[in-house]
Design brief:
- With about 290 residues, the chain is of the alpha+beta class.
- Helices cover about 40% and strands about 15% of the residues.
- The chain has 2 domains: about 80 residues, Phosphorylase Kinase, domain 1, CATH 3.30.200; about 180 residues, Transferase(Phosphotransferase), domain 1.
- The chain starts with 11 loop residues before the first strand and ends in a 7-residue tail after the last helix.
């Protein structure tokens, strides 16, 4: 497989996709904004830049994984193929600020919890169809003006049923601050691994900081942090985090997958119950006091 040209902007791919601008670059490829000349709509065009067989397999698996998913919280795939020997994927253009931007700007407790509930809906859908994301992080999530969310980049996705044997020794794929301990240790991954990553995001959204400081340049420290360290209680960093919400957050980022929430639905139910209880308590606090009481 030959590498793509260094600059695709201004070129036409697969006889119909006119490349307009570079949106981002990752470990496996570049993502461009492009126009579909046939359907007259803007799309996201992901082009593979690596030449290894392993990366090519993962890239094509992403296309197959996304093609099986049809959910408003997950980017839609429109097309996939090869143009002059270069694999590409054409996807819905999910433009707008990311959850990373929202966290940097500061999120209320309620908005952080509601965003997590919406993300759990999308992950539940993917997990039920045997797809694990494996790289859930704020920069992979677009937040719309109406509060809806959309998960992007399934480039590291795998079938849950294919992961029972774990990863190979020394293989660490994904974004280190959001990886669960089992991934560092080469143990099997499953839906609880995606939930751990989402729990890290929720912790960060509530407190403004990551629970474990980890750096790809210091892998030993990163492994130690995720495998052995315990996070500071969120309520010590944000007084608006109640004991119940703190319990939920700390449970979802437990070291042992068996001690975490076991499914997206289970965690979603707990967060919804928390919001309901908070809403009821708020209503009681705002009730006018009776004369003489």
């Amino acid at each position: 497989m030959k590498p793509p040209p260094a600059n695709l902007i201004g070129k036409r791919i697969a006889l119909r996709y006119d490349v307009l601008a570079l949106l981002g670059s990752g470990g496996m490829g570049n993502v461009y904004r492009a126009t579909d000349a046939l359907l007259h709509r803007e799309v996201a065009l992901k082009v593979l830049t690596e030449q290894s067989d392993v990366i090519r397999h993962r890239f094509l698996f992403e296309a197959r994984s996304l093609a099986r998913l049809n959910h408003p919280g997950i980017v839609t795939i429109y097309d996939a193929g090869e143009s002059e020997g270069i694999p590409y994927i054409v996807m819905e253009l999910a433009s707008g600020p990311t959850l990373k931007d929202a966290i940097a700007a500061g999120m209320t407790v309620g908005s952080a919890v509601r965003a997590t509930i919406r993300l759990l809906e999308a992950l539940h859908y993917a997990h039920k169809r045997d797809v694990l994301h494996r790289d859930v992080k704020p920069s992979n999530i677009v937040v719309r003006d109406d509060g809806s969310v959309k998960i992007m980049d399934f480039g590291l996705s795998r079938r849950i049923s294919d992961l029972s044997a774990g990863t190979q020794a020394g293989e660490i794929v994904g974004t280190i601050p959001y990886l669960p301990p089992e991934r560092f240790l080469g143990k099997p991954s499953d839906a609880r691994s995606d939930l751990y990553s989402l729990g890290i995001i929720l912790y960060e959204a509530l407190t403004g900081v990551l629970p474990f400081r980890s750096d790809r340049d210091d892998l030993v420290a990163a492994v130690f942090a995720h495998v052995d360290e315990h996070p500071v209680e969120p309520s010590r960093l944000n007084s608006g985090v109640s004991p119940e919400l703190e319990r939920i957050v700390l449970k979802v980022i437990e070291k042992d997958p068996n001690a975490r929430y076991q499914t997206a639905r289970e965690l979603q139910a707990e967060l919804r119950a928390y919001l309901s209880a908070e809403s009821s308590a708020g209503a009681r606090r705002s009730e006018p006091r009776r004369s003489g009481s």
